[in-house]
Structure formats: structure tokens, C-alpha cells
Design brief:
This protein is mainly beta. The protein has 4 helices and 19 strands. The two termini are about 15 Å apart.
Length: about 220
């Protein structure tokens, strides 16, 4: 039905009957110290390993543009072949889906994220994220120009993809992206966050170019 590279999730349609869906646990009830079982099917049968929730945190942005509503860390590395399997509590309820495709050592996509992404995939076949087509690197705005752009930090453009919105609408390598629609940028994650949900949308981009502040209108494209 659809896939989302940003969260490493896909929805498959199966012509089958008599299937019993798993029960989903309330992710907010998960606490540090709770025992959990990562499940996988590295071969023909289901395998399980016992772990413990070692850390919980706020949401985080993945390198591919997705947003995980909560950070869940389980002690130990994800065993080989367990990516795509459920992380369940001691009552057999799913608290997330494990993946080796987002973070080194593995990660868990929490319940809230799974439900949100699945809903989008079933409705539209994709999760809407805007795309500019730039490669960026964090940079400090020169002190003499900080007053002109209203910021001390930004993202210097080090690459622009051919035929991308950035190339079409006039962004240049060397421009320092300072803000999109008034939201200041200090890291690549900030840019991904501000573009989430803004597909084929005209956004106002504030840049520092050759020491001068400029504003351009860029119409985003859907991220593949």
C-alpha cells in the first residue's frame, strides 16, 4: 500500500483471512527498566531475545527525514535478522517495530509513529515531506551579517541536485540558509522538520548570499 523511507516502514496488503492482529500497548506507559522482547524471523521460525529498556527520550529526526515520536533504547544491539520484527512487552503487546535501517545498532519505531505513518500510507501511499534538493552543512553566520539576517547560525549549501526545486528557484551553492517561513535553521534536522507536511508548497527561504540577506520563494517537491 505504500512505504516510507524516513521511518523505514511499509504497509503490505495481504489477501488472507483468519489473521489475529497484535495488541498495541500504550507507548507512554513504557518506563526505563521494563523488560521487553525483540522478536524476529531470521530463518523459518520466530526467534526472541530478552532485553530491558535502558533509555527513553524525546522524539528524534532520522537522517532520511522521518520523525520518531519517542526515542526507545533497548540494551544490546539488535540481533541479525530481527529488523522488521515487533518489540513486545511481557504481556505480548507491541510497543514498537525494530529496525536496523535508521540508526547504527538498531532502533525502535514507537507505537505512535507506526500508527501515524500507517494512516498516511493507507490514505495517500506516502508520508508528505517537502524536498528542496540541497546538501547542507551547519555554519556560523559572520558577525557582520548577523544583524542583516537575524540569526547567528545557518546551513551553508554545499550541493544542489539537478532539476531540483532549489536549482529551479534560484538557490546557489555557497548560500547560507537561515530560515524557512520564518523558522530559524541551525542543523539539517531543523530543515527536515520545517519541511514536513509541506509538499508542493511555496515557502519563503531567507539566505545570506555574498554578505547580503535575500529572500526567495521556493516551491517544494515531494521527497521520494
Amino acid at each position: 500500500a505504500g512505504r516510507d523511507a524516513g521511518t523505514d516502514l511499509a504497509v503490505l496488503r495481504a489477501e488472507a483471512t483468519g489473521l489475529t492482529p497484535i495488541t498495541w500497548a500504550d507507548g507512554d506507559a513504557l518506563k526505563v527498566g521494563h523488560l521487553v522482547l525483540p522478536l524476529g524471523r531470521p530463518g523459518r521460525s520466530v526467534h526472541a531475545t530478552l532485553g530491558m529498556v535502558s533509555a527513553l527520550g524525546e522524539g528524534l529526526r532520522t537522517a532520511t527525514g522521518g520523525h520518531l515520536d519517542r526515542y526507545i533504547e533497548v540494551d544490546g544491539s539488535l540481533p541479525r535478522g530481527f529488523s522488521g520484527g515487533a518489540l513486545v512487552d511481557t504481556q505480548g503487546r507491541a510497543v514498537g517495530i525494530n529496525t536496523a535501517g535508521l540508526l547504527r545498532g538498531g532502533a525502535t519505531v514507537p507505537t505512535a509513529t507506526v500508527r501515524r505513518v500507517v494512516s498516511d500510507l493507507l490514505t495517500d501511499g506516502r508520508v508528505g515531506r517537502g524536498y528542496l534538493g540541497v546538501s547542507v552543512f551547519p555554519a556560523r553566520v559572520p558577525e557582520a551579517a548577523q544583524g542583516k539576517v537575524g540569526a547567528t547560525r545557518g546551513l551553508v549549501i554545499v550541493g544542489i541536485e539537478a532539476a531540483s526545486p532549489a536549482e529551479r528557484d534560484g538557490l546557489l551553492v555557497g548560500d547560507v540558509l537561515v530560515a524557512v517561513d520564518g523558522q530559524l535553521l541551525s542543523s539539517p534536522a531543523d530543515l527536515l522538520a520545517v519541511l514536513e507536511g509541506r509538499v508542493r508548497a511555496a515557502v519563503t527561504v531567507r539566505v545570506l548570499r555574498a554578505g547580503e540577506a535575500r529572500e526567495l520563494t521556493v516551491t517544494t517537491a515531494p521527497r521520494a
